[in-house]
Design brief:
The protein has one domain. The strands form 2 sheets. The chain has a 5-stranded antiparallel sheet with strand order 3-2-4-1-7. A two-stranded antiparallel ribbon has the order 5-6. The protein is α+β, with helices and mostly antiparallel strands and about 150 residues long. About 20% of the residues are buried. Strand 2 and strand 3 form a beta hairpin. It has 2 helices and 7 strands, in the order E-E-E-E-E-E-H-E-H.
Amino acid sequence: MMGLFSRRPEPDTSALGSAALAQTLAGGALVPSGCVGVVFDQGGRTRRVPAGSRADGGEHERALCFHPGPYSADLMPFAAAPELGLRLIFGVDSADPRLAQQRFDLFLASEAPAGMALTDLCALLEAALQRELAQGNLALPPCTSH
């Protein structure tokens, strides 16, 4: 039981930036250093919360935080040729001050409201890459190698 002035336990965010890309935060939890907090409502509207601030949301809002990276993923562009690989090094987000809602925030609100493991994002990227290559919408240059 928590007393009137006791502090809420902060979530374990140690996996952020390595195994976890994003994770949920309890209302009022502190956004960890090096991370970005996102609060979103049922309508998909989002707002950012900077590191070191509390992710306070309203009654029908959810909060999560993400680590911007960098990350590395080994993707298999062709399922029939697993020996051909593609190493992707990426950062998740850099805020665009011209936009009220950031694209990655909207992705999290619609696709990962409970958080996302890095392996899950890599699986989505690999499936999209394979689909676009199979449909002829994307071509890898001849020098692409693992």
